[in-house]
Every structure is written in C-alpha cells, then in structure tokens.
Amino acid sequence: MSDTTGQPALGAVRQRADVPRARRIVVKVGSSSVSGEATAQIGPLVDALAAAHGRGTEVVLVSSGAIATGFPFLGLAGKPDDLATQQAAAATGQNVLMFRYQQQLDRHALIAAQVLLTAGDLQNPTHRVNAQRAMDRLLALRVLPIVNENDTVATHEIRFGDNDRLAALVARLLGADALVLLSDVESLYTRPPEQPGAERIDEVPFGDELAGVTFGSIGAAGVGTGGAGTKVAAARLAAEAGTSVLVTATALVARALDGDHVGTWFHAAP
Ligand code: GLU
After folding, report:
1. Considering the entire predicted model, what is its pTM?
2. Which of the listed residues 37, 106, 163, 198 has the most CB atoms within 10 Å of its CB?
3. For residue 222, pLDDT beyond 90
C-alpha cells in the first residue's frame, strides 16, 4: 500500500519486515554500546535512527550510558558502587552523552530533546500525562526525544531497575508499534551462549513462557545493569500492550530498522 508520495503507508508492525514502515518506534541502547571504546558506535546508531526518521517514522531513543560516560570525567577508574557517586557520574555523563548524540545528529540536521524520567513519574498520573504529551509534541515537531532515567533523584528502591524496563514503559506510554532493544548480543539464546547446547531464539510467540530457557547475565558487560532476563521481562511488558519487540546487537541497528532478519522477535498481543 502506498500513499500519494509513493512511500509505503506507515502502519502496524507484526513482523520484522514491517519495521521500516512503523508509525512510531522506541529504540533502547545499553551503556556498554555507547560508552568507553564503544563511543564510536554512536555515529552509526544515529545514522540508522536518522534513516528511520527520514522514512517518516517517529523515533524515540532510550539511552543508558550516563554513569558509564561520566565516571572517567570524575577521575574514577571504574563504575562507582555508592549511590551518591553514581548520581554524580550520571549528572556529569548525561551532559556529555547528549552532546555526543547531538554532534552526530547535526550531520542529519536533526535536534535531540533530553527527557529524564523516574519510575515514580510514570506512576504519578499528572507526571505521566505530562511526559506523554511533551513527547507527543516533540515527535510532531520532528525532534528526537532521548530518554534516560533521572538518575540524580532515583535511589535503588525507586529505580526502574534497568533501562530495558524504562524503554518498555515508554513504548507503552506512547503506543509504539515496535520496541528495539539493543545490546552486545545478536539475539537471545536458550542458555548463556558460551555454554554447550545454547541455541539461538529466532521468534517468541505471544504468551510463550520460554519454558526451559535459562538466562545468565549475558549482555550485561561491566557498565550496564541489564541482561537477557531484563530484556525478556521488558519484551513481555511491551508485547502485552501490543508493541512488537526485537532484541538484537547495537552493531545491527541499521539492518534491524531496515526490516532484515536479525535478532530475536517477540510477537505482540494480537
Ligand atoms: N540510567 C543509567 C545510566 O544512564 C543506566 C541504567 C541501566 O543500566 O540500564 O547510566
């Protein structure tokens, strides 16, 4: 189906091949994909987001990496353990991270908007509606919202837990057609991929409990908090709300957004 411009009409996403014509997508990237030696991945990531934006898709990026980006600027050798230093690193790193995204977006004449949320914001009806309305407006204005947890005010008890969950809640809030969860691994496996007998999971039908599948901490390289388990939990949360979910590697983001057969696909509720 085409509209008058000859472009395929934007619509619902039920399978990978539908991703290029999604009306609205949320892409989540983990700390280890955009900080340290992986900082160079921000350029290709932004190129892929800009290509989707250019097709008319409304794109929201949920990016971790504030703490991982910030701690070297504080003279620390590794990710801090205590909350106050993590918050200080996040406040420092969030600024640098946004600057790095904007530098790359400049090449595409796009502008980013920083949206920092806490779990409490999404539970508070007033804050929730404000966040939704502001992001709807940003998307209508063709701005790229870049969302992260508001780490400065989030304590361990009231955190989302990880940004995979935050991304799923944002996808639900915005009624996204697809959620793409990016990390270091190409897809999910039936057990940690370094173990014998681990098999790649290609598709997960809606409601499949993935019985017999064991998830280790794969995908959680030193600087992030998520792993395969948090991705599955987030994927279920989004799928229940009618959002299809693709879990794959940051290096494959362009192919993922082009609708290629990569990663693990979670079917959304019918
Ligand atoms: N919000 C944290 C950061 O930007 C990361 C949360 C997570 O590990 O997903 O550093």
Report:
1. 0.93
2. 163
3. no
